[in-house]
Every structure is written in C-alpha cells, then in structure tokens.
Amino acid sequence: MAITLAALAGLAFALARPTPYGNDQSSCDTIYHGYQCQDEISHYWGQYSPYFSVPSDIPDELPHGCSITFAQVLSRHGARDPTASKTAQYNATIYKLQANVKNFTGPYAFLAHYEYTLGADQLTIFGQQELINSGIKYYNRYEPLTSRLAPFVRSSGEARVVESAQNWTQGFHAAKLADRRVQSADTAFPYPIVVIPETDGENNTLNHGWYYVFLLILCNTFENGPDDNIASDGQAQWAAVFIPPIQSRLNAALPGANLTVSETVYMMDLCPFNTVASSNGTISAFCALFTKEEWHQYRCVQYSAPASDPIRATC
Ligand SMILES: *[C@@H]1O[C@H](CO)[C@@H](O)[C@H](O)[C@H]1NC(C)=O
Ligand SMILES: *[C@@H]1O[C@H](CO)[C@@H](O)[C@H](O)[C@H]1NC(C)=O
Ligand SMILES: *[C@@H]1O[C@H](CO)[C@@H](O)[C@H](O)[C@H]1NC(C)=O
Ligand SMILES: *[C@@H]1O[C@H](CO)[C@@H](O)[C@H](O)[C@H]1NC(C)=O
Ligand SMILES: *[C@@H]1O[C@H](CO)[C@@H](O)[C@H](O)[C@H]1NC(C)=O
Ligand SMILES: *[C@@H]1O[C@H](CO)[C@@H](O)[C@H](O)[C@H]1NC(C)=O
C-alpha cells in the first residue's frame, strides 16, 4: 500500500466550534463527521473507506487555563481511482463476466449493463471534496488562530497528494472568506505548498520510498527487510480463508462466471471504488452483493494485517 501523505500544518488555537457551512451534502456525509452513509459496511473498507470521524474517549475540550498555540494535521490523500494495475484487472474481470455470463438476475442484474469507466491513480471529485471539507473543518475548529494566520503546508510529490494539499488550502481559504469576523481579504492565498519529491536521495519524511529499490532508499529495512512482504502475504492468507464461500455464492448466482479468489476480491473492491467515483458518494450497487459480515472480514484484507496482529482478533 502506498503510504503517500500530505502533511498540512498550521498555527492555531481554540475549542472545537462546529459552524454550519454552506455545502449541499447529503446528511450522511458531512464536514464535521465525515462519511457515515451505511456505516455498518462503509466503515469496513479499510484504506478504501472515505474519511469518517470516530468516537473517542479523549475529550476535545481544552483544560481550564490552557490555550492552543499550534495545531497540525497529517492527512492521507483523498479518495482516488484504483491504481493503474488494479484498474486494468477490474476492467478485465468485468469484461470476463459480461463475456461469459448470459443471465444476470436479482441483485446482479445491473452487471448486464455496467460499464467500467474508472480511471487510474488520481483523486475523484469526491476525494477532492474530502480535502476541501478537511480544510473547512480545520479552519473553523481553530478559528481564533486560523483567522489571522496562513497555514504552512507540506506535501509529498505524487500528483494526487499535491492535489489533496491544494484542495485542503481551498477549503481553508473558503472558510476564511466566509468568516464574518475576518475583515481583510485573504491575500496570502494561494498559500505556498512545499512539495517534497519522492525520488531517490530525498529525505522525504512523508514517503517511505516504496518505488525505489536502489541504495538510497529512505526506509530500506521496511522495503527490503525480512518483513517486506508481510502485507501481501497476510492478504493472500486471509483471502484464502474468507473468500471461498463468497466465491462459491457468486459463481452459483452467475453461471459461467468462474471467478477466481482474486477476482472475487476485485468484485468487493468495486463497491468502494464505484462509491467514491460518484461525486456525492452514492453507495454503489456492488455493495449489496455482499453481507455485513463479509464486509467486516474484508476490512482485514485491506488492513494487510499479519496473523500476529491484534486486529486479527476482530476478524
Ligand atoms: C447523488 O447523486 C445522484 C445522481 O448524481 C442522485 O441520484 C442522488 O439522489 C444523490 N444522492 C444524494 C444523497 O444527494
Ligand atoms: C434467467 O434466470 C431466471 C431466474 O433463474 C430465469 O427465470 C430466466 O428464464 C433466465 N433467462 C434466460 C434467458 O435464461
Ligand atoms: C476495458 O477493457 C476493454 C477490453 O480490453 C477495453 O476496450 C476498454 O478500453 C477498457 N476500459 C477501461 C476503462 O480501461
Ligand atoms: C481540487 O484542486 C484542483 C487543483 O487546484 C482543482 O482543479 C479542483 O477543481 C479542486 N476540486 C474541487 C472539487 O474544487
Ligand atoms: C539526506 O540525508 C542524508 C544523510 O543526512 C544527506 O547525506 C543527504 O544529502 C540528504 N539529501 C537531501 C536531498 O537533502
Ligand atoms: C475455471 O477457471 C479455472 C482457472 O481459474 C480453470 O482451471 C477452469 O477450467 C475453469 N472452469 C470452467 C468451467 O471454465
């Protein structure tokens, strides 16, 4: 999994102070709580889940007598299309289904006319909006500081990460313009973004350097050490456990399909990817092909957790 991150830092202080903001989002996807649509499944898509806030036992009120003088947010890029290699495999899976299955019935009926149109690697409109929302939320949360300061922004060099940082600044800027207590125009916008390349020899603390298998790799032990395949090994082991019953059900419902284990996982992946390909995050028809329990198992595949990981106890 590519851990490319946009780090977005700023000076700030104040209490959490939710402010309604004009944005016609559906009620299950909001700036302050993130994506809560069908949360019993959509929060179980691992790295493919849209941003959502989680309950915490740690109170977010400031202790009496304290004030915030600095705040930092470290963010993953927004929701994106599949990677280039995955998009080709997803397309091939749909192509195979449509070539071999003569009769799509029940919840599978949509597959007869489903057209694969997902792109590769870049943010979707929904993913751009996630970061705009993050900028708005951050601005309003720390308004006494953000209203008088410009943020300092750092981003790793991959295109979708830089665009995420840009969208975050756009949200921050829009919230500042909407802030009645701010008199002056936000002349510091567009705020400069320090972009750190992901190439060899760069000491890029926002990227572990997974593309670069040469000597100057930043996290060489992580990339090429004894555990470098721990994620893909763990994924394959777990898929071999939980996928076969799902695979049998799909192949029985779709005579001629003959989906493999990997292709069955791809059918599941198409739920989150088609959901975030919709500009308002409408849950895709692929999602209804699987049960809540199956989505809870799927989360573990996306976490890439090895057998020893405590998260497995919840799988
Ligand atoms: C999302 O957009 C689709 C069409 O683009 C529309 O049919 C649907 O009602 C919208 N959903 C919400 C919750 O706004
Ligand atoms: C498709 O499947 C349905 C339900 O099993 C069946 O009633 C129908 O006759 C089938 N159609 C064709 C063209 O095979
Ligand atoms: C999907 O595969 C078909 C057949 O190979 C190809 O013609 C089409 O361009 C592909 N579509 C996408 C979106 O990759
Ligand atoms: C996100 O930022 C990019 C680059 O500035 C811009 O082209 C795009 O329109 C922005 N997205 C939205 C939803 O405004
Ligand atoms: C990265 O850090 C190493 C070790 O401190 C240093 O030799 C190298 O010049 C740094 N590279 C860059 C691009 O700053
Ligand atoms: C199903 O696919 C497997 C390979 O994954 C192949 O060996 C087998 O012959 C296929 N079965 C049919 C009926 O096409």
From TrEMBL:
Upper taxonomic lineage: Eukaryota, Fungi, Dikarya, Ascomycota, Pezizomycotina
One Gene Ontology MF term: acid phosphatase activity
Q: What is this protein called?
A: 3-phytase
**What keywords were assigned to this record?**
Hydrolase, Signal
Residues of the signal peptide? 1-16
Q: What is its EC number?
A: 3.1.3.8
Extract the SUPFAM superfamilies matched here: Phosphoglycerate mutase-like
> What is any Pfam family matched here?
His_Phos_2
Q: Which family does it belong to?
A: Belongs to the histidine acid phosphatase family.
Which InterPro entries does the record cross-reference, listed alphabetically?
Answer: Acid_Pase_AS, His_Pase_clade-2, His_PPase_superfam
Question: Native species of this protein?
Answer: Friedmanniomyces simplex
Domain of life, per lineage? Eukaryota
